[in-house]
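Objective 1b: paired records.
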Amino acid sequence: RAVSSRLKAVPDHLWKAQELIRQKPEGIPPVWLEQAITAARTGDQFFKSLEKHPKIIDAVNRWPGLLKEIESARKSLQGFARFLENDVGHLAQGSAASGEHHFNKLLQLKHGLDIDHQQLHAFGMKLTKQIHCELKQLCQELAGHHDIAQLTAQIGADHPNPEALISSYREAMQSAKAFVSENDLMTLPAAEQLDVIETPVYQRHQIPFAAYMPPMHGDSRQQGYYYVTPVVDQQSLSEHNFLSIKHTSVHEAYPGHHLQFASANMDSVSSSWPRLLNASATMYEGWAVYCEQLMVEQGYLDQPLNRFIMLKDRLWRALRVMIDVDLHVNQLPENEAARKLCDCLGFTKEQALADIGWYTHAPTVPMGYALGWSMINTLREQQMTNDSFKLKAFHDKLMASGSISLAWVIKRQFGVEAMNNVVSKITA
């Protein structure tokens, strides 16, 4: 009945969406229009696939009208895609940029940072140059040359077959979880579960590689989902090489996103509504990037090339700091932003545009990865000067305030002075 009620609501919802869009189509950013058209078409494919889903087949036996409701929802999505393409496409000319005022307010009020976009951009530029230099130097040590693209291609050649992609991610996820537990790196939530599944069809245009869907607050099982997008060509397959699969599993699963979100959801303090409604990428993404470094340090990612993957991914996150500001404040066109990812990281145009696409919806989220990682490292360096420092206790304190601004987590768990010292290093 829940599926039926949602399917019945689709036509009316999309009709009202058309009415709203007709009021000011010229304000729609072209990049958002393209995403909406793709989402409508892939949503249609998803609804079509439901007809063969075992649970839907079983439900049809008890609810014969379900197939008609699926067909009605499909026709509504098809019509919505045509409306966007034919009636709105030639009119859409809006900007996706948030603007300087809103961007700076987000830095201050959402992320608790007493900095502006210019200071953030300078931080990103400095970090990008530093990491790029380290990456070239490491490339020379490992391969005898500075050609980052060549070494990346060499690593990309060692990958699972497409049919073994999901099982390869599942094995990496399970081994990372076992390592965290055996080495007592942090307190594991009492109840949590993570399944590796293919990225749903309707989300693949937004998730070129892999992503994580966290459990809901109040879910007793804390069931998370680790999405892996099926490959469409050899270039895509190279991104799912064995080394990168382990790094991604550390970031998305253990001890990264899944443990952090499950821990936040299970604690009575960190799962309060103000915290749940004010998540900051400086915390949840900063933690996940820090985990990549942690698992190199602790010996889980123990191959010489693991450090190369770590630094290359860190370069990606450093670039995001600058691109975040450039898109939303400096009016950088999306195609030019995508070209930066292609030139610096070797992304295909499609992969780069998919990545840039979500940046346009989420000002100050892309910057949170590298900034949060840098803040956690600075904090850890300071805390390690104490004779009583214990790594597990440090991680547990970081987890104890939920997913709010990392600056506020530090203030609550480590004190005002620690927070001020960490934030001041951003502009040093």
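Objective 1b, second protein:
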Amino acid sequence: MGMNTTKQTTDPHQSMTTTSTSPGRHPQQTDDRREVLGYPVDLLSMEGALNRAKNAIEAEKPLQVVTLNPEMIAVAEADSGLEYNLKMAGLVLPDGAGIVWALKTLYGQTVDRVPGIEFSEGL
């Protein structure tokens, strides 16, 4: 705690290296974003998530959406490509109950699950 660590991540699909320092802000960090085990999670309701995605669609701006659950984090720890994509996504929704629990435990934030299938249907 209180200790800064630096981690370099290289995108295996592009010749790009990003460096982030913890604690710090994710390149797309906003006031409604927190981290769980080093992975970003946006603190949005279903309505808020749909609005953000619809705004990106209307503005014709790409937006990578991730519906994060603990299993994805476990796999990403062994898969640097998945780790990179999870950490760089523009919208990361708390899909799994474990993510919702972690946000409550770590930050006192009560958020609802935003299941990917329901999000997709809402679009």
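The first strand starts at residue 5 and ends at 11. The helical segments are 46-58, 70-76, 80-88, 97-107, 116-122.
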